[in-house]
Amino acid sequence: MKLSVAVTFLCIAATSAFAPSPANRADTQLFNDANQNVFGTKSLEWGGNDSDPSAKTVRLRDRLNEADTERRKAEEEADRRERAAEIAREERLAKIKYMQDMPDSTPAGTVDEFMFKEGVQDQLDKLDKELVGLVPVKQRVKEIAALLVLDKMRRKLGFETAVPSLHMCFTGAPGTGKTTVAVRMGQILAKMGYSRRGHVVLATRDDLVGQYVGHTAPKTKEMIKKAMGGVLLVDEAYYLYNAANDRDYGQESIEILLNVMETQQDDLVVALAGYKDRMDTFFSYIPGMMSRIGNHVNFPNYSADELVAIAAVMADQLEYDIDQAAYPVFKSYIEKRMELPFFSNARTVRNAMDRARMNSAIRTFERFAINGENGGCCTVEDLKAITASDFQVLLDDILNADLDNRIFA
Are residues 126 and 268 in the same domain? Predict the structure, then answer.
């Protein structure tokens, strides 16, 4: 009995000795609160290290799964290539059998039939009508069209064919019709089934090259995406390469274009345009671009007589009538303007025609609205007429202007 009382007393004494003081009670409560949820979120987080055998097992399992996925993808790719090769062999054997069984008297159709049936001749006729002169250019376009027509005739008979390199380079001064020819070529390719849409997307350096790292590739790819199924016409393409700056972003755009020209030539035609001397320099820096272009077309400058004929075509399209006495005056203006800097062939003619139309409008307004001629009533002929006096204003501006201001006449 005495022993039990003694033990109880010792236990009570020990508990009192180790009991926390009032100052430590708050810390003890915080410790208990922080650890009261032993199954909470923090206790479920992985707190192991790389030396843990279980972590190594999980990581090894993941790597084995990844390796198995890569192996399965490689097998599927190999099977796909094998099936494609088998299909190509079967198609080739079918073509050989077709050629062997086909009688020698089987007609392939006439060239004219294909030219008119596919609408190619219609596009060539429009090119002849809309473009004055440029005989070498038109001849080159007809040669390309002839190649496409004969290639389609060969396919009809079962001959082996391959899509020819249709990438182009148009060189010449401004206003010589490069964009117009590119549009016509896109339409011809669409008629012949060599492009899905036949549209033309015009791009410059600003459309292709970015201003900072990582900006060029998205811009170039976006323009290529817009042009897919048609023609991408890069005007003044030599500005893409800056030989004086090794860090210029244009090189990245050129590399993307080169890759697309090689891998996507069945669905995209790239046409480069610019001055001949600068394009030659550009090709010397980028020989890979030169080798990927199979059609080089040079656009010569127009003569004065051809520019007068272009003015007549423009007037006809806008439903104006140029007086016969006005043609010599306009030719004199063109000859004087050709001697000045910044002459732009058909673009200069278009600007001159716009000014002549404005002069005609001023003259007609003064006659009928201000002076009240014929009671203020004008005829259809008055509204359509462009006279010699309308062109004489342009010629006088050049003859009477100072040397520094003549280019603005």
Answer: yes
